[in-house]
Amino acid sequence: MIVHTAPADISLVAQGQGPSGLMTFLPLVVIMVIFYVLLILPAQRRQKKTAEMLSSLKSGDKVVTSGGIYGTIVGIEGDAVQLRIADQVKIKVARSAIAQIQPEAKES
Q1: What is the rounded radius of gyration, in angstroms, for the C-alpha atoms of the chain?
Q2: Contact 54/96 with Cβ under 8 angstroms?
Q3: Per-residue pLDDT tens for 89-101?
Q4: Is 53 exposed, middle or buried (0-12, 13-18, 19+ CB in 10 A)?
Q5: Stretch 65-81: mean pLDDT
Q6: Measuring CA to CA, how many Å separate 38 from each of 26, 41, 44, 46, 51?
Q7: Which region holds residue 78: left if phi is over 0, alpha if psi is between -120 and 50, else beta?
Q8: How far is 9 from 16, CA to CA, in rounded Å?
Q9: Residue 48 near residue 92 (C-beta atoms within 8 A)
Q10: DSSP single-letter state for residue 95
Q11: Range list of H helices, 18-98
């Protein structure tokens, strides 16, 4: 038995079977949103916090470098910082090498 259908009927059947355009891209959009929230946003916040810390450095701050050297800032020269790491021992490091400012020690 041979069934003949009109071309208009074939196009209607083809259109009804596929998912809509939105449903095709929805999983991709959801993955991109999750990627942004879990990876990109925290990295941007961390970078902003580090930039604020580096711009607020001043003489007398006790800091730790990314190499693990503990010292006290005795001078700031543009992108370089001079640290006193022992009596009569000063070193010059890049401002970006400062990893963190040491919290003030509480006396008890």
Answers
A1: 30
A2: yes
A3: 999 999 999 999 9
A4: middle
A5: 94
A6: 18, 7, 11, 13, 21
A7: left
A8: 11
A9: no
A10: G
A11: 21-35, 41-55
